[in-house]
Specification:
By secondary structure, this protein is mostly helical. The protein is 91% helix and 0% strand.
């Protein structure tokens, strides 16, 4: 005996468009899921990169601050040396003048 399943024509005319419409929906859903996963990965990569850049920027700022302090110290030291040289020059000038006056 051969049995066959018979569907009413209204069920076929109603189900066929739904089945055909579900194919693009499934494709779209899969595509959106893939894009969301890719975006999530890219977001992680960008977050890691930003964290590294922040650390490097902080390190660079610290180095710049240390360099600035060293430059200030060198400037102060040179200023002190100039003052000492001026004092020494004045003292030598005075000493030479005294020596010249003693010779006369």
């Amino acid at each position: 005996m051969s049995e066959s399943i018979k569907l009413p024509s209204w069920a076929i005319s109603f189900a066929t468009p739904l089945i055909l419409a579900s194919i693009p929906v499934a494709i779209s859903w899969g595509s959106l899921t893939a894009q969301a996963d890719a975006t999530s990965e890219e977001t992680k990569i960008i977050a890691e990169t930003l964290k590294e850049m922040k650390e490097e920027t902080t390190d660079t700022a610290k180095l710049a601050e240390l360099n600035s302090q060293k430059i200030d110290q060198l400037s102060d030291s040179l200023s002190d040396q100039v003052k000492i040289n001026e004092q020494t020059s004045d003292q030598l000038k005075t000493l030479i003048n005294l020596m010249i006056q003693d010779r006369r």
